[in-house]
Amino acid sequence: MLRLPNIYHYKNLRLLIAVPLVLLVIGLVLSTQIVLDTSLRGGVSIIIQTNTTISAATLASEISSSLHVQAPQIATSPGGLQITLPINQSLAQADTYLIQFYGEKSNYSAYLVNATSLSIAYQQNKTPALLQQIKQVNAEINASLLGMQTALRGEISALQPFGAQNNVTNSTDPGALQQTAQSAFGSASARYQNQTIAALHSIVPFTSYSYQQVTPTLGQFFLGELTNTIIIAFVLIFFVVFLIFRSPIPSIAVVFGAANDIIIALGAMGLFKIPLGVASVAGLLMLIGYSIDTDVLTAIRILRRGEGTPEDRAYSAMRTGVTMTATAIVSFAVLFIISVVAYVPTYYEISGVVLFGLIGDIATTWLGNASIILLYKKRKERI
Fold first, then answer.
1. pLDDT per residue over 81-126, tens digit each?
2. N or C: which end of the chain has fewer CB within 10 A?
3. Taking the domain 7-38+216-382, which CATH number applies?
4. How many CB atoms lie under 10 A from the CB of residue 29?
5. Which residues, at least 6 apart from 154, have a Cβ–Cβ distance to it below 8 Å?
6. pLDDT digits (tens, 9 = 90+) for 141-161
7. How do the domains of the chain map onto residue ranges?
């Protein structure tokens, strides 16, 4: 086990707390440089495996000319290339109409159920009020059906560059309208993918590829859901820790430790250009778990144990925690190096986030979190 000096015997523990606070400020500044990957901002991400040597600038220029897209992004790595293209505007517009279509379809289904209930009630009690409600809900059903037809016509019009055709836009069968809407968008997306891959293959030969397309609307939905997930996680963490220690100070300290680790990781992402996407958010959630583990370990050792002085218990927790964190850092550092060499973007994002977050966790937990809890413990003993 690591032999480290007992820093908790220092008189001014508040100076130790200043270190993670400085890292917090630096992380906030650097996090403004974070870029979203295609899974959150929308676009097309293509990863190809090739042995052909070509400069990123030349490849970007040829792709822009061949596919008629602006500002394609090229990331190179031994054995592979990652090409990021903006979403095709026709597909993006069609996606907006498709979402509108499903909204109208949902309303149609709800109104239809309501109409059925009202009809059953009217058979048992034929009142003018129920008859008026039936007329109103039937009007809403017709309006929703008209909305579905309008949205479908908008989608088909947007997809005309891909040869989309439709003969049922005036159909009153919701099932037929939905099938047409789904197949039109799916066929257009497949055709665009084939055109894109064929154009890329003519520019730079490759042996294998992966293709991912996310529309801006879906990307915004993912971003909103992931943001809500992280917020809910922190709220639940606060309440669970509060139930354990019955005091707001340890709860705030634990939440501060996890939040600071996240901000430090975000700052590292901005500094090293690690994109924020679904994979990196998964890394952030893993980082929360690591942070809570060490923070709760520290709080329990200092507040609940009785052997030795609080400083000695904090030191014992630090020795254990630093050993655990160092092991995890080595593991994720190896994964980070492998992901760079083998060109695996998902592993690169996850390992990069967790690696830099764990490095920040050493300062946050053992200089900040432990010092806050130790000061709280000393103040509590004096009262």
1. 888 888 888 998 999 999 999 999 999 999 999 999 988 888 888 8
2. C
3. 1.20.1640.10
4. 12
5. 93, 97, 100
6. 999 999 999 999 999 999 988
7. 7-38+216-382, 45-214
